[in-house]
Protein 1
Amino acid sequence: MKKLLYFIAFTMASLAGMAQVSDFSGTWKLNSEKSTLFEQFSLAPSQLILTQTADSLTVEKHGNFQGTDYVTKDKFSLDGKECINPGMMDSKKTSTAVWSEDGKILTISSKLPTQDQGEATIKEVYQMVENNLKLELNAASSMGEMAEIYLLDKE
């Protein structure tokens, strides 16, 4: 009986110590006025549809780049393991998603090949700011670097 009580106490302490992760699920619309967009061009999605489970995050991005509408859909494993999604022009995007220690910030780091035989890196940081989703994007390739901050309102 004593062993059972110790086991229950240990289990409860372990669960209490585990961070509750943020849930980003929902349909989100870009708030351009509150966002910081790259001056020359923007990779900002007009809408994000996020579906989150205990072990994955599906990100559907709707947007317009240089006059062309696009929709991308990526699925990320939330256990820190590498996952592969379609990239541009039949390439493959390799990504890892890692939670902050407190479970409030999710960082997705991705790499994908570029047309010049190089590699582009993309870092996306998701977090809740009050009732809004904040997404920080940093991208770098042989063509240069860019940084944007998107603030999205829940629809």
Protein 2
Amino acid sequence: MKLISTDKAFIYYMRDRADGKAHGIRFSRTAGATGFVSDAPTKTQSHPVPFAVYDNAVALPIRGELPPVLANALADLEEQYPEIHALLTGRITFEDALRS
């Protein structure tokens, strides 16, 4: 699921896990990327998505290793949403992702 906040300041990419929780990556226009786990499934999510577990935000483009929660979510989401990797590496901008 791709969710864009009404003010277009955040983009969430998330997917349900087998345990009924959702995990994903939140991109912020100003803070970068944050990996998260939410106790609620994706179908009930709206902005702001409540985080049960999360990484500290990392600036974009990402240099070096990914934080663990973000890396786990990326592994599960990047096939369905290839633009995530492009956002993380700086190949596309936040504005580009809003339009796609």
Protein 3
Amino acid sequence: MAAVMLADLLRSQGIGDVEVDSAGVAAFPGQPASEEARQVMAELGLDLKGHRAKLLTEELASQADLILTMTSAHKRAVEALTEDVPVFTLGEFAGGDEELADPFGQGIDAYRSAAGKIRELLVKTVDRLENFWKEGEG
């Protein structure tokens, strides 16, 4: 959900030349997004129908300029894969310390709540990204 929302926010800000991708540290490659995630994104006018899970590998991580994770545990797992790419939790990059738990298996309301929290942090993230790129960090 975060990747499709970030790509949409960047496009709406006129920042369309950024590639946003999604991969998990414990993903089941090829698995589609959950029905709840697809439904919540559809409610926001976004499409997750074609999404397929990817496992984050060292090679994939090394291709990134920046990696944002949902939790500090994810951040530690990603940092074990790459030393050359800046890694932050989304909450940390947005200027706080909020952790975003996976709503999997918790029903549609948990997905709606997670999407709202993610969007709130992504709005702050888009502002920070512009400074991140200007400062030459990315």
Protein 4
Amino acid sequence: MIGSSSVRDTLNLGRRIAGLSRPGDIVCLFGGLGSGKTVLTQGIAWGLGVSKEEVISPTFVLLRQYQDARLPLYHFDLYRLKGDNDVLALGYEEYLYGSGISVIEWASRLKYLLPKQYLEVELLIKGPKQRSIKLHAHGSRYRQLLKELYAHIRH
């Protein structure tokens, strides 16, 4: 578990994740409203070379794409997902296993469509600015990513 006592801490964690990411990586975000999912995504974008101010929650359009980066960023927000067909209609698997990084806010809404391998990030509100961030690897690629991430955090 990682503690975050500010927006900057959460942004920096996102930057570290981006620095270790490779094409086809999937980051699934879990947490309530206001827990920092979009802030973490902004940090990932920033780490890829996208202006963090450019990244906003795509709440009304399930997907926003940022191509002008080290790797393309596919930012999904499933908060307003009406049904599984909405995600299937996007052709979401093309993004998940494509040339960029997919970040999925409200990933719990995918249910049985959740990928088999991904980095799980759960953000929990502990106070007005404090967050606890739990990271869990699903698959060998993400176990390696977490190992490298924790090594960077300790230094």
